[in-house]
Amino acid sequence: MTGIEIDDIQSAALRPRPVPYVGRFAFLRVDDRHAGRALLRRLLPAIDGGWPSPDPSQDAWVAVAFTYQGLRALGVPQESLDSFSQPFREGMAARADHIGDVGESAPANWEPPFGTGEVHIAVSALSPDAARLHKALERAHVAFHETPGVEVIWQQEVRQLPTGRTTFGFRDGISHPNIEGVGLPGSNPRETPIKAGEFILGYPDETGNLPPMPSPDVLGHNGTYVAVRKIHTKVAAWRQHLRANSSGAEDEALLAAKMVGRWPSGAPLTLAPDHDDRELGADPHRNNDFLYRENDKHGLRCPAGAHIRRVNPRDADIIGDARMHRLIRRGTTYGPPLPEGVTEDDGADRGLIGVFTGAHLDRQFEFIKAEWVNDGNFIGYPGEQDPVAGHHDGTGTVTIPDKPIRRRLKNLPSFVATRGGEYCFLPGLRALRWITELQD
After folding, report:
1. Which of 196, 347, 374, 394 falls between 20 and 30 A from 15, CA-CA?
2. In which element (H, E) is residue 152 found?
3. Residue 150 above 90 pLDDT?
């Protein structure tokens, strides 16, 4: 196998986010291509590649990605633009019906500038603390303010909540794929390494072939595609539904766990079926060490329709090959938490910024959304959506296997709403330099 050129890959493509974390996402519009390239030249020293880094100061890092319209605005030749994948060229808003962004989640209801074509450059920064985040962003701020012709048009602060959990109250960021040749261990010791070409362009994928790659090679090699999503979470509606369908606090906690697939601590139902196990949830060597066919074939512990089992079926008996659709999934929380026990919506915007990374937008992110999140045919429940991430609009159904008889919840409302999304390309470091050196 060809060695993976780790030093040329933006570290944000492969590194798990820090725990705890603070961060910022920013979208930029390029009004002058020369100014856009000048901005990138100023940003380059702040963008690191490689894993792992021996320098502890690199626990904070900055990443830069581009939309199709952004690459065009920077002056990338049309021949190269035409070589990118169709979903990327069209953009997430144009693919909304396919991936289930309908109703209140339709692009017409998105927060500007999502889906407007004005998002050209996406800059992200994550760090374990505010001091290191500030240090990582210093150069970026200088670049922004010293480059007329480039405008920051959207920013979002993210941070881990004091509880260490999502707005729904569950620990996140537990699962990370085992990627062959990268040198970064996966979170599940039972997972056979997945070919690097599923995540980084220029290397064989699970089919044994090289994924289609943008041209010239210097632009595509060591790059990847990223789907960025702003997801509003309806925490009050979540709590109301759980309470209305439970007989008491213990039953409510179990129902929530059945819908998610884990307990709030992160302990998986497959290993802790009856009650939360905080020690298990906090142990990175055990909290992801399971398979479904071996530990829970019939879903009596973790339902086949539970959120974590849908988005990563592992070795479960499903229609298709789960390894062909693996993603690097990261979520970061924004907005204030809804106080514990409150069941009335306070009007605050809260949720997560999701970042989904893979070499194939169509058979990874889009397939998971269309086939696994928005439909249950692959697990034998046609029409049933992901109980947490699906867009139900009061008509949803979820099946929970049990003995002697299964339980079926009806009339699920939507617990999330898409506030916006963009498809981006995250180039390698040589590709970034190539873009800065473009000539008109």
Report:
1. 374
2. strand 150-159
3. yes
